[in-house]
Each structure stands twice: as C-alpha cells, then as structure tokens.
Amino acid sequence: MMKRVLCVVMVLCLLMMTACSQQPAKEVDLKAVMDNLGAKYGLNEGMLDLTADDLLDLYGIAAADVKQYQARIKLESIQADEIVLIEAVDAKAAERVKEKLDARYQTKLNETRDYLPDEFDKIEKCKVVQIGNHAALIVCAEGQAAIGEYEKAVK
Asked: Global pTM?
C-alpha cells in the first residue's frame, strides 16, 4: 500500500514540475517583424497595407479570430508579392487562419500557372507556415529566407 501511495505522489510531483516549467507564450510584435522583413526583402515599396476588412474580403479571415496582424500586398496585380502575418486568438482560430491562407496560396498558384510563369515559380518556392497561434503567408523573391526570418521571430 505504501509503495502505491509513494508512486502516486511521485507522479503528481513530476506533473507539477512539468506544468511549472512550461514557459509562457513568447510575445511577438508583428509590426516589428513586418518592418524587418519589409526592409530586408524589399516588401515595402509598391506594397499596400491591408485592413481588417481586407482580411475578410481577400482571405475570409474573421476579425474575431485575429489577435494582431500585419499584411501587405503588391499594388501591381501582375506581381505576386504578398505577406500576411497573423497571430490568432487561440489554437482553433490559428487552424482556421492557416486554412484560409492555404486557400489563398492555392488561388495564387492557380491564377499564375499558365499566365505568369515567373510569378508562378516565385509562389511555388514559398509557403504558408503555422507556429503555435501564429500563421503566415509569405510570397516574395527571397521567400525561403523571409520565411526563415519569420520563423525565428515567432519561435
């Protein structure tokens, strides 16, 4: 009997230590991340900052799912450059946001496949990423590098 009690106590202690050692989620300033990516990868000039209404209209992302966001799209529609950084309010909202960004990514691929092969190649080298409650669509000439920078910023 004493061994059982001791085992239960040890398991409870381990669970408490694990719970206490978890670090709170990292606070990320998406404006600072956007400014850094914009400066480093040419995502400032000729780009339009999007509003919360644009998030709903272009992506189908509801404002209720978004804690903070930064989004820019190229003014010239024949250029595919687009960067959308979103922190969702919770994990389920982050999944919904990622689904919407995945759909947008697929649409961009489909729209450029036959008409703008250079832009298609640019999009194809990029992707949508999700890390915790953060999700992003990053499309630019140096997409892989920009995605790497984003991932470092939100991890």
From this structure: 0.83
